[in-house]
Amino acid sequence: MKIAVCLSHVPDTTTRIRFVDNNTQLDTNGVQWIINPWDELALTRALEIKEASAGRVEKVTVVHVGRTEADPTLRKAMAIGADSAIRVDADPADAFSVASQLAAAFRQYPFDLIFCGIESSDYNNSAVGGMLAELLSVTSVSAVSGIEPAGEGWLLCRDIDGGVEKIYAESPMVAIVQKGIAREPRIPSMRGIMMAKQKPLQVVPAVEVNPLTEYLGFETPAPKPPCRKLDPDQVKELAELLHKEAKVI
Amino acid sequence: MEKKALKSGEFLVRDTLPEDIFIPEEFNEEQRMIASTCRDFLETEVFPVLDRIDQQEKGLMPSLLKKAGELGLLGISVPEEYEGFGQDFVTTMLSSEVMGAGFSFSVAFSAHTGIGTCPLLYYGSDELRRKYIPKMVTGELLTAYCLTEPGAGSDANAGKTSATLSEDGKHYILNGQKMWITNGGFADLLTVFAKIDNDRCLSAFLVDAHSPGVVRNPEEHKMGIKGSSTVQLFFNDVKVPVENLIGERGGGYRIALNILHMGRIKLGANVLGASRTAINESIRYANERKQFGQLISSFGAIQHKLAEQAVRHFVTESSVYRVSRNIDDAINELVQDGLDKARATIEGIARYNIEAAFLKVFSSEALDYIVDEAVQIFGGMGYSSETLVEKSYRDSRINRIFEGTNEINRLLVTDLTLKHSKKGEYDLFTPANELLNDLLSVEYPVFEGMTYDEQKKQVVRNFKKAVLLVAGAASSFFERKLPFEQEIMNNLADMIMETYAAESAVLRVQKLAAMKGEENTGIYRDILDVFMHHAAFIMLKNGTDALQSFAEGNRLKEMEEALRRLTHTAPVNVKEARRRIASRLIEDNSYRL
């Protein structure tokens, strides 16, 4: 059995976001790149399943759509424990194009279970996982917070209001996961870092895809207006401001 | 083949090219990944429990060290044949830098991986190494280094701990007392220095800390690094197998000195991690705290402090990684000459004993400045134990004391620099005498018409001449008695380290210009301008102090005038330069240079 984890390469969450080219492109100067936190937890869960499978899961592969600058992120995933990496050599233009490139790669290299993080911390579209399953015509379950192998398929848990929903699904399938999927990401060990050099990072050519959407531009939030301070005895004014200006009462 | 590596201290009489130095911007992917693992380890395992560490919760520090061992972090520099990861010295320094942010944990980590593991690794028999080093790498066995005694601190060879061979010749019997032993409260293995049968020099022994007769005193109460274990140890008729002698009989003093060289240079890296934390805390606080309706980061007085913190950090970093690559080159050369990797490492480090000594001084004093200003930026809040900068301030102070006090290291810098020259490693005295015989030919540098790089190179060359002038004059005046003039020795040490730091920063900025394009190096040039301006005054002050201590009359006037000319820099608007540096820090909300 083979497990794939789709992996986004995103700016560190403490990055100061700036845009260039008339506010249409992210300024990548000085940006620290990391594995998308949801994908990193999916990778942790995939490795846990492999380790507990007594050899049934033969390998865990991370798959990414992007250019060569993401290679360090993929090697980090292999240092954490993935057995191999596939990078589809294309610009990730929008969710549909990423899903289409991934689908093409998965038709060529089939997997029994494909993990997708429910969103990525850069564009937060939350769309790739569902689109990918649809393009591959396989089952998908979204907002998964737990997964265990069960017979030929998978037992999945979803957090719902006030409880947990349990679902069974057959392989192959796409599991679109929430952060609760694993407790915490793993830190690459020294041994892992050394071994990552020997593990295969395969680059596959892109297929022809026309993105469905186009980024016209980004707007940064307007700076917050300064705080207005009232004296403790201005209760009337406070009530009026909350009613008329802030419109919260 | 021409050897590129400079000898220790030789920078004073030889130019270095930017392409011959290593700068932190050149770390490769694997090195960055190792650094990121160290950072992740601190963030997930150490930072959440800093208070519990400082309260010395029983068993916590050993368990953290063992967790670091599980990730392989205790064996980064240990050769693969002893189940380590065989990383080079630059990588070891990078990991030491990152771990240096771990407050008391970083002290325990450094003590175990450095002075705890290394005497055996570098000098032990192969059998002993194979038996113990792999367990030190996993953290199964934790270590401490026992050199200092009540009557033997800076004068390490004065130790009274004795070792006597047992009647059957199978054991040494150890008796004595050691103090300020880092990790002593929980260590399983100790490197103990003792004299065999009243030898003149120490010998080193690997001692099982759980042996009968080893008594551990309670933990010392300290000003800072409160979470690190520091105890006195007593040895009462402790039996040590004869095969646990590390190195040769009487060879312990040399081992102790070489291990200290290593400890000093690694302290330079550790300090960088601690200073980065203090700077980041300072910037973030200045960007949050409002007074008079404005963020305090908008005030010039605060911007001045932020910029000066960054300048000192950048310059220390430039110097530390420059010598680290020199050490790697020396290690490789020794390996090619047939030395085993472990032995080559310690000999390679020892080759840079002058740099190790002055970088220990420079970096620990830079950190003390940085944490002091961090507390000041926090104002009253900085005096509260609730803030990290209060801990940074207390924890920093020990760095000027351990691994040889800064006073001992300053004396060592000047002493070794002069000795190496007398031994013919390089020649300081011929150019010094030429300069002293022709003082009137020293002119003010003419910076007009020079490029930025040429100006800076000229200033560095002049700084070197200033060192030669003072060293040459003092040597010929005091002759063999110069080492007893400790104040002048210290003045010279300050001039030597300031010159090295200035040259390292100049070379790094030149290399950055080649890598990133001159148009992208404005901020680095600002840093360099501010530092060179500062360094010139330090050079002039120390040189003047020294010259006025012994010279008189016209000769003094001539030498002072030459010194003024040799420490002259082109005028720079340092206020604006500092503001630009601060703006960058404020905009990034952290130190990201």
Task: Write a structural description.
The complex is a heterodimer of chains A (249) and B (593). In chain A, 27% of the residues lie in helices and 29% in strands. With 249 residues, chain A is α/β, with parallel strands linked by helices. In chain A, strand 10 and strand 11 form a beta hairpin. In chain A, helix 2 crosses helix 5. The longest helix of chain A is centred in the first third of the chain and has 15 residues. By secondary structure, chain B is an alpha+beta fold. Chain B has 19 helices and ten strands. In chain B, 53% of the residues are buried. In chain B, helix 1 runs parallel beside helix 4 and helix 15 runs parallel beside helix 17. The longest helix of chain B is centred in the middle third of the chain and has 37 residues. In chain B, the strands form two sheets. In chain B, strands 1, 2, 3, 4, 5, 6, 7 and 8 form an eight-stranded mixed sheet that branches. Chain B has four domains: 133 residues, Butyryl-Coa Dehydrogenase, subunit A, domain 1 (Orthogonal Bundle), CATH 1.10.540.10; 102 residues, Butyryl-CoA Dehydrogenase, subunit A, domain 2; 153 residues, Butyryl-CoA Dehydrogenase, subunit A, domain 3 (Up-down Bundle); 161 residues, Butyryl-CoA Dehydrogenase, subunit A, domain 3. The interface between A and B is medium-sized, with 17 and 22 residues.
Provide tags for this entry:
heterodimer, A: 249 residues, alpha/beta, Rossmann fold, two-stranded antiparallel ribbon, B: 593 residues, alpha+beta, Butyryl-Coa Dehydrogenase, subunit A, domain 1, Butyryl-CoA Dehydrogenase, subunit A, domain 2, 4 domains, 56% helix
